[in-house]
Design brief:
Blueprint (H helix, E strand, L loop, with lengths): L11 H13 L3 H8 L15 H5 L4 H24 L4 H16 L12 H11 L1 H18 L2 H19 L4 H17 L1 H9 L9
Helix pairs in contact: 1-4, 1-5, 2-4, 4-5, 4-6, 5-9, 6-7, 6-9, 7-8, 8-9
Length: about 210
């Protein structure tokens, strides 16, 4: 038994991981769109319930709320795990669980978003400097190209490099960032094909 007297110690990591996955499964894009009376974000753009598709509805405030919600749900469980002095592997597992929840949400038939904002929230909890480096990379690439997908792909590709520099003493956290980066790029495989074919939709582009 643990210090609470009713939860076996061996179950504590499982509870953290499951709770993180369930939180990650909450799709703020769908919830916010319903609250604003907007179309389901899964019916426009790339078909995923992320902030980019919500923005395509023309409601910037809804897109911002979606972005903040998806980032917050990535940050919160990892931050709580760190504050609770969970072992490094537990924190890393919580980080991956909330990210997997966003990608494969149990509440939406395992069809979720691409995970950019949620991954950013996770990185913010692990290392604010890591999150800042990834966010700046995204912003610079987007400002130059006007392609949100390209910005996400480049930021994801460089995130493990930043993590190796900033989290070299925390191998489990680095591995978590690496896995998220690989999955982020994989989730953008259709966008990569469109970028190569010149058919990807960019903001401000005809």
């Amino acid at each position: 038994m643990n210090e609470l007297g009713f939860v076996p110690v061996t179950l504590v990591p499982i509870i953290w991981i499951v709770a993180a996955y369930l939180l990650g499964s909450v799709a703020f894009g769908i919830i916010v769109s319903k609250l604003f009376g907007l179309p389901d974000p899964r019916t426009v753009g790339s078909g995923n319930p992320g902030a980019t598709n919500v923005l395509r509805s023309g409601k910037k405030s809804a897109a911002i709320l979606t972005l903040l919600g998806d980032a917050l749900k990535g940050w919160l469980p990892v931050w709580l795990a760190l504050q609770s002095d969970m072992l490094m592997w537990v924190v890393a597992s919580v980080a991956l669980a909330v990210f997997f929840g966003h990608l494969f949400p149990i509440f939406y038939k395992f069809k979720g978003g691409k995970g950019v904002a949620t991954a950013l929230g996770v990185m913010l909890a692990l290392s604010p400097m890591l999150a800042l480096a990834a966010a700046v990379t995204w912003a610079v690439v987007f400002a130059i190209s006007r392609y949100s997908s390209l910005a996400a792909i480049v930021a994801a590709a460089l995130a493990p490099v930043y993590a190796w520099v900033l989290l070299s003493a925390y191998k489990d956290y680095f591995l978590a960032v690496l896995v998220m980066a690989v999955l982020l790029i994989w989730r953008h495989r259709t966008n990569i094909q469109k970028l190569l074919a010149g058919t990807e939709a960019g903001f401000g582009k005809k």
